[in-house]
Amino acid sequence: MHDVPRQLTTDELAELFEGRTRLVEELAKRDDPLGEARDVIAQLSDEDKLEALNAHPAIGARNLSKRSAAEQGGDTEPVVLTELAYLNQVYEEKFGFRFVVFVNRRPKTEILGVLRQRLERTREEELDTAVEELVAIAEDRWRRS
User: Fold this and answer.
1) Is residue 41 within 8 Å of 135, Cβ to Cβ?
2) Does residue 99 come out as left (phi exceeding 0), alpha (psi in the -120 to 50 range) or beta?
3) Distances (CA, A) of 79 to 52, 112, 141
4) Are 13 and 139 in contact (CB under 8 A)?
5) Domains in the chain: ranges and CATH
6) Is the pLDDT at 117 greater than 70, yes or no?
7) Hey, which end of the chain has fewer CB within 10 Å, N or C?
8) By C-alpha distance, which of 66, 52, 67, 106 is closest to 84?
9) HSE on the CB side for 114, CA within 13 Å?
10) Tens digits of per-residue pLDDT, 37-77?
11) Cα separation of 106 and 71, whole Å?
């Protein structure tokens, strides 16, 4: 378990955020990247926010990083995975970016409920929530590594 760090390399941040994006590049310049992540995100263009969100794998996807696979768990009921795939597609069509949620070891059936609720929101609300979830995931990953 790690405390929140003072400085992380680009590669370490890319692992925490699922890819080398403009967000990661900006965070790597900071003395306290995870502590300053929300401020950095607030300064990013929508395009850069979308890049960071779309770097994350979809919930229930098959080709996951080792870390994402462990976080998303092994519950693989075909009906649940099919509904997740469908609602992920609906979400991406509605908002224009990937559904990102801090799973926090919850089962996929519970995440389906979260996804349904978040589909009822505005794009602006959802973009704010999604980037907040992105930071929560990275913070949790750092603490658990």
Assistant:
1) yes
2) beta
3) 29, 11, 29
4) no
5) 10-144 (1.10.3330.10)
6) yes
7) N
8) 106
9) 17
10) 999 999 999 999 999 999 998 887 656 556 554 555 556 78
11) 9
